[in-house]
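worker-3 :: picked 3-dehydroquinate dehydratase
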Amino acid sequence: MAIDASILVLNGPNLNMLGVREPQIYGSMTLDDLEAACHERADQLGLTVDFRQSNHEGELVSWIQQARTECDGIIINAGAYTHTSVAIMDSLILSELPVIEVHLSNIFKREPVRHHSYISPVASGMICGFGPHGYLLALDAIANIIDRD
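worker-3 :: tokens ->
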């Protein structure tokens, strides 16, 4: 499958610290390594990836709003904002784009506060617990969604 589509890959707070932050949970891969892997997989699928990270909720919201007219889909790991941000949820709804929620760890095997997601109810799907490979699965999934629409 090779399609021509642009995907926004968003990473929320503390994901800039991958490789340093709790490697027993998140692994040793850095965000730069993850971005390179995403670009490689996107090239195989015929996708263009705009890979971004911010520790600021408002910046994530602004990027999602911008994607509404510039992208064909969104992959998002909102980090801790997953469990708290109605603003991110609302912006994803407003985007009217297919959304795949991704998490490196299995959020349901972690602290109870991490079990609730404001993103899942508005996402096309959710991938968690597969480490960095989850992002590649998310690219496959969003390519499939875009290709069938």
